[in-house]
Design brief:
The chain is built from no helices and seven strands. Helix content is about 0%, strand content about 55%. It has one domain: Immunoglobulin-like, CATH 2.60.40. It starts with a strand and ends in a 9-residue tail after the last strand. It has a four-stranded antiparallel beta sheet, with no helix packed on it. A three-stranded antiparallel beta sheet has the order 2-6-5, with no helix packed on it. It is globular, with a radius of gyration of 17 Å. By secondary structure, the chain is mainly beta. A hairpin with a 2-residue loop joins strand 5 and strand 6. The protein has strands spanning about 1-10, 15-20, 30-40, 65, 70-80, 85-90, 95-105.
Length: about 120
């Protein structure tokens, strides 16, 4: 089994311990996580508000290109457990950024070797 999820994390600066839950994650799952800065398109201009509409627009629909910007973005200390994975996201920049994180879950390894 291989399954991937994409998270859009807003306002990240510095070190954050992040948590993601999914029932298919097991303590012995292999979990790969990547992270990058993302370009968010400006919110649409809404002249007249209709019920349920917000002035900022839907952030997910405004996610554009993932980029290698000037900020260092890193994922560390990935720790799967039953139903969730915890990891550290580090964003080395002076201002909060929007970060896209891709999480891919694999079955347990076929074999564990002592090295």
């Amino acid at each position: 089994m291989v399954k991937s999820y994409r998270l859009v994390l807003q306002g990240r600066k510095g070190r954050h311990v992040e948590h993601f839950g999914a029932p298919e994650i097991k303590a012995d799952s292999i979990v790969h996580i990547s992270a990058s800065e993302v370009v968010i398109a400006p919110p649409p201009v809404i002249a007249v508000h209709s019920p349920g509409q917000t002035a900022s627009g839907d952030v997910l629909s405004r996610v554009r290109d993932r980029i290698i910007g000037a900020a260092d973005v890193a994922v560390m200390n990935v720790a799967p457990s039953e139903g969730r994975v915890d990891f550290v996201l580090s964003v080395d920049w002076s201002q909060p950024l929007v970060i896209v994180v891709d999480i891919t879950i694999f079955d347990a390894p076929a074999q564990t070797v002592l090295g």
